[in-house]
Fold:
Amino acid sequence: MIQIEKRDSPPEILETDGVDERRAHSVSYAHDPEAYQSGERSFEFDDSIYGHESVKSALIEAQHRKCSFCESKVTHVAYGDVEHFRPKSGHRQHSEEALRRPGYYWLAYEWTNLFLCCPLCNRRHKNNLFPLRNPEDRAQSHRDEIEDEEPVFLHPGREDPEAHIGFRKAVAFAKDGSTRGRRTIEALRLNREALMEVRRDYLATAFKEIRVLLRMVESGNLTSEKETEARQVLRRLMEQKRQDAQRDDRPFASMLCDALEKVEAQIPEE
Ligand SMILES: [Zn+2]
Structure:
């Protein structure tokens, strides 16, 4: 997970149709809050607004076609979900508990609440889970302040997830015992087997040549001339990888950065 910098101005449709919808929903809610809380009435959200092509393409640009959580490339646009960081229809503090309604309906078309996500992270794992450090602080309606909440999940647009989540090889771990890092990893299953396999392959390929050169240098069997040559190539390849790791459009950029540090430490002194 890396920090995502979205453009400041929302796509127009969110400011026109989105604002109209939000207003209509807020009026309906104010009219009969109990009916929405009990689930007797529920909101219908218009995915042709928050999932509009202009919204998707702005997210794709900001996120370089990567899932905001697992950093996999969302290869085909049709497979990418526009996901709501704060769930719009209902929320759960724990995955076992019943869905609490009505959810953050007033943020359904809110630009800062939208991200591009792979279907696995979004539908299967995150779903409506949205724990708060203190559930008592939860905003219940458009009249409440979300700024009073302390979400457990890392917000990829507002903070740097790399301060909380690091990688040991292909395995994500919570840095410095970060509770928010740990719970984000667990809830989104960022160490699910299929994803780890892709990350392992990615690492193996990315460092293949470097590992061969490292072994040669470590072996001590090279003539000094050959060793100098091998070190030169190694330095060049490492520099390439450093540049790669700084590019946010690389899949698993966060993991690549951590792996690079490890490899760097393994290069024997001259
Ligand atoms: Zn994902």
